[in-house]
Specification:
The structure holds 2 protein chains of 2 kinds. Chain A has 11 helices and 11 strands. By secondary structure, chain A is of the alpha/beta class. Chain A starts with a strand and ends in a 16-residue tail after the last helix. A 5-stranded mixed sheet of chain B has the order 3-2-1-4-5. In chain B, helix 3 crosses helix 6. Classes of the chains: A alpha/beta, B alpha+beta.
């Protein structure tokens, strides 16, 4: 039976042929029929996976946690030595050179409110003492849309995912000015398998981790912009779960045990 | 001075207040942070209360509500304070047991790591 594979929308948008090659590579390595379907928007992709239509997903950190919690997925492998970071960008030939140049009302382009990129982008603005009341967000459903909004003058600032910036053409990067960037090295995308592929989880993880040691695997890794994949640990997922529960679901952590010094 | 003693906590707080980078980065930060040693229940937890970035109380945990509880085994505390393990690595490997807002922790990861460095800069006796 053919299993269904998809990737976080920004990745399929970044290098779609590379992801089709990835699908073919995994099919051969695993001797498992796989069909790759790309999505163009975060909400559509998330809904399709949560509806049970997909068995293997390369997911952004918060979506991965939702798939684990709500759809019985397991997070298997992540890009080696690589983390999700955010670049706060403006237009290179525009008037904004730094935080001090921001107008009173600030239009901010963001791909999706439900992503770690959006959360960390907000952190950057908050740490720069930008009052959130000055911000008008525009959600573009993709990081390419964020760049487009900047280039077309529809936003003063944009939250750009580091991978998308790195993969953009020199021409596009030249049109952007990076005002600030995160350096948290904390969250990551990961390959997640659903319940129908649970029995193959070990083999899939091994195949992904072994890619960097294989000539064909290395070529595909280069296409999709990674040096290799490494196993995700349960502790890493626990940390991301705490973060996602708080941000996505609005669960404020409560310290339940009694203070030790309580009378 | 014994590690995790009230006197040691006060010395950490003094260095915290003297650290210009922490003061700048945490100027709007308010929290009560409790610290403990998981494998030494005989050592009472200590705490620091931070208001607008300044530590205004440091000493024994006094029963007030905590925003964060940070605990680890003594050996992991030794690794953290010696720089052998970063605060972030401790969090992500669960060698630090962290309770509280992970969003706040991520937002303030740089000062958190500086805090761990400060803990290591205060001379402390670990063999007790």
């Amino acid at each position: 039976m053919t299993r269904q594979f998809t990737a976080d929308p920004n990745y399929s948008g970044k290098n779609l042929p590379g992801w089709y090659l990835m699908n073919t590579y995994l099919q051969k390595q695993l001797d498992l029929p796989l069909h790759f379907t790309p999505f163009t928007g975060f909400d559509e992709a998330r809904a399709a996976v949560l509806a049970g239509g997909y068995d293997l997903v390369y997911a952004n950190p918060f979506d991965a946690i939702q798939y684990v919690q709500r759809a019985g997925f397991q997070s298997l492998a992540k890009p080696a030595g690589h983390f999700d970071e955010v670049l706060l960008c403006s237009l290179a030939d525009g008037p904004l050179q730094g935080y001090a140049d921001l107008p009173e009302r600030i239009r901010v382009a963001s791909a999706s409110e439900k992503t770690l990129v959006h959360m960390v982008g907000q952190f950057l603005l908050d740490k720069a003492d930008i009052d959130p009341a000055r911000l008008d967000y525009q959600y573009t459903e993709s990081y390419q849309g964020v760049i487009k909004a900047l280039v077309q003058g529809r936003a003063e600032l944009g939250f750009v995912f580091n991978e998308v910036y790195a993969a953009a053409s020199e021409l596009v990067r030249g049109r952007l000015r990076v005002i600030d960037r995160s350096d948290d090295a904390f969250a990551f995308h990961s390959f997640c398998v659903g319940p129908r592929l649970a029995g193959e989880a070990g083999r899939i993880r091994e195949a992904l981790v072994a890619m960097a040691g294989d000539e064909k695997g290395r070529a595909i890794l280069q296409d999709i912009g990674f040096a290799g994949f490494e196993a995700v640990t349960p502790e890493e997922i626990d940390c991301l779960t705490m973060l996602a529960d708080e941000y996505v679901h609005g669960h404020t952590p409560v310290i339940e045990d009694e203070p030790k010094g309580a009378a | 001075m014994r590690f995790m003693s009230p006197a040691w906590m006060k010395a950490v707080a003094e260095q915290w207040n003297d650290h210009a980078e922490i003061q700048e980065m945490l100027k709007n930060f308010n929290a009560t942070i409790e610290y403990g040693i998981e494998d030494r229940p005989d050592v009472p937890p200590v705490m620091m209360f931070v208001k607008n970035g300044r530590a205004i109380y440091a000493g024994p945990s006094d029963g007030r509500n905590r925003d964060f509880v940070i605990s680890a085994k003594l050996d992991n505390w030794r690794k953290l304070t010696s720089g052998e393990m970063s605060g972030k690595m401790g969090l992500m490997t669960k060698r630090i047991n962290f309770k509280g807002s992970m969003m706040t922790a991520l937002k303030h990861m740089t000062p958190f790591n500086i805090h761990m460095n400060i803990m290591g800069e205060v001379p402390a006796e670990f063999d007790f």
